[in-house]
Amino acid sequence: DTGVSQDPRHKITKRGQNVTFRCDPISEHNRLYWYRQTLGQGPEFLTYFQNEAQLEKSRLLSDRFSAERPKGSFSTLEIQRTEQGDSAMYLCASSFSGGTYYEQYFGPGTRLTVT
Amino acid sequence: KNEVEQSPQNLTAQEGEFITINCSYSVGISALHWLQQHPGGGIVSLFMLSSGKKKHGRLIATINIQEKHSSLHITASHPRDSAVYICAVRNQGAQKLVFGQGTRLTINP
Hints:
The complex is a heterodimer of chains A (115) and B (109).
Chain A: E1 5-7, E2 10-13, E3 19-24, E4 31-37, E5 44-50, E6 53-57, E7 65-68, E8 75-79, E9 88-95, E10 105-106, E11 110-114
Chain B: E1 4-7, E2 10-14, E3 19-25, E4 29-37, E5 43-49, E6 52-56, E7 59-64, E8 69-74, E9 83-91, E10 98-99, E11 103-108
Parallel strand pairs in B: 2-11
Antiparallel strand pairs in B: 1-3, 3-8, 4-5, 4-9, 6-7, 7-8, 9-10, 9-11
């Protein structure tokens, strides 16, 4: 499978715990995006990387959230001290960059439930 | 900030009907996407367009840049078309997508 993969697909955690999600983009894609989608809503942008550089962060990304892409390949999104409001689907997407805009390919998402 | 509005929010139709989903946005864009999301969360890109019209099988997407409006049409709808359809735009000079809230489509046999 050469698509975008995310792990885990589902995560249930207790409030206050830390969680970490992983995204593996399509191998030749140098841009990687994280989005969050709450029930019944469209996704919202969180952050994006070009290679290992984090180029933009949304105001939605509070101090409890951190994302990394250390070698410009896979990325991790960590949420510290989870709150019930963090319950959502976390989506990763990747794209190639060049002179023109290339479309984003989405992974299956990680569904987080905070109890 | 670009505001993306979709209508209707929910749509139920009978198999075979012609379906139209609308998307309006407030600020000039570089590209507009139509995406399909099935239960379970996976998102599939249907179209990316910046002008005119694109067709793929029974799906047709149009965009009017001057009116800041796009439509997604499904001809001869089928129960397997049941999904959430999401419009997303990329603002000029930006990389991230700004999404509409989605349209939940149900096609009954």
